[in-house]
Amino acid sequence: MQVTVSTDWLEKNHQDVIVLDASWYLPSENRDSFNEFKSRHIPNAQFFDIDVISDTNSPLPHMLPSPSSFNDHVENLGISNNLKIIIYDTEGLFSAARAWWMFKIMGHIEVFILDGGLPKWISENKPISDSPQKAKRGSFLSTFKPSNIVDVSQILETKAQIIDARHPKRFSGEAPEQRVNLRSGHIPNSVNIFYKLLLNEQKCLKTKLELLSIFLEAGIDLDKPIITSCGSGVTASIIILALKQLDHNQTALYDGSWSEWGLRDDLPIATN
Fold first, then answer.
1. What phi and psi, each to the nearest 5 degrees, are found at residue 196?
2. What is the pLDDT of residues 100-149, one digit of tens each?
3. What is the DSSP code (8-state) at residue 29?
């Protein structure tokens, strides 16, 4: 299944789609994604803030909002159900995948990632704007897909394969977590596929053949259900994006991810 569009395609069709900048940075990076968006973005793009478009009542970072809250936020960005959405970020492919997954779980079909994101767009000398435009309010109604998200209780009972997208040293417990008060290690019986392995040098998704090889070498059975996890539900979305590229549809994201699992002393952890 196609999950990306090329920079050339977007340049030719940008007037017929909604373009979203979903850039996000770890708190430790001390960067302001919205201010960066205002000074440099693809013309007519709107800013999709994964920290704002979230369950703000949860103590965990950027958890999925309710469908009604999601509807209200994206309508303010000019989004309607009949529109095609193209999402990018400033890293090439990072947090854009989270926004893509959010639209997917809310039932939107026509949503794609800009292959290579803003870095590739800029490297090809395509137009850039520093004048954000206010969108005309759209009309969006979610069709929520609860089977595409899981919580702690479901993880404890699942027989599905679990893929953890974090760095191997965080997965093994050798490296400390970037958020405070989190234990080190991983969910027992999970498999580590570092999300960067799925990207080429231009931060685009690798070819289908390359992606297939990575999953098979990790021992993943693509005929069975898969749950993805990471630090806070961002790079786990890149795993789902790659699986969707391979036409795998039995996927769910553990939204709390290690921000929740690593925080709770009552949950088992493994290290290796």
1. -65, -20
2. 999 999 999 999 999 999 999 999 999 999 999 999 999 999 999 999 99
3. G
List pLDDT tens digits, range 229-265. 999 999 999 999 999 999 999 999 999 999 999 999 9
What are the C-alpha distances in Å from 2 to residues 25, 151, 197?
26, 28, 19
Q: Which of 156, 141, 160 is nearest to 243 (CA)?
A: 160
In this prediction, residue 175 carries a pLDDT of 85
* Buried-state track 208-220, b at ≥16 Cβ within 10 A, e below 16: eeebbeebeeeeb
Single out the catalytic residue among 230, 234, 239, 243.
230
| Element at 208 (helix H, strand E) | helix 208-217
Distance (Å, whole) CA 221 – CA 234 = 23
Q: What are the structural domains of the chain?
A: 4-144 (3.40.250.10), 147-261 (3.40.250.10)
> Is 230 noted as a catalytic residue in this protein?
yes
Enter the tokens of residue 95: 């947090």
pLDDT digits (tens, 9 = 90+) for 29-59: 899 999 999 999 999 999 999 999 999 999 9
Distance CA 37, CA 43 (A): 11
Q: Which residues contact 146 (CB under 8 A, 6 or more apart)?
A: none
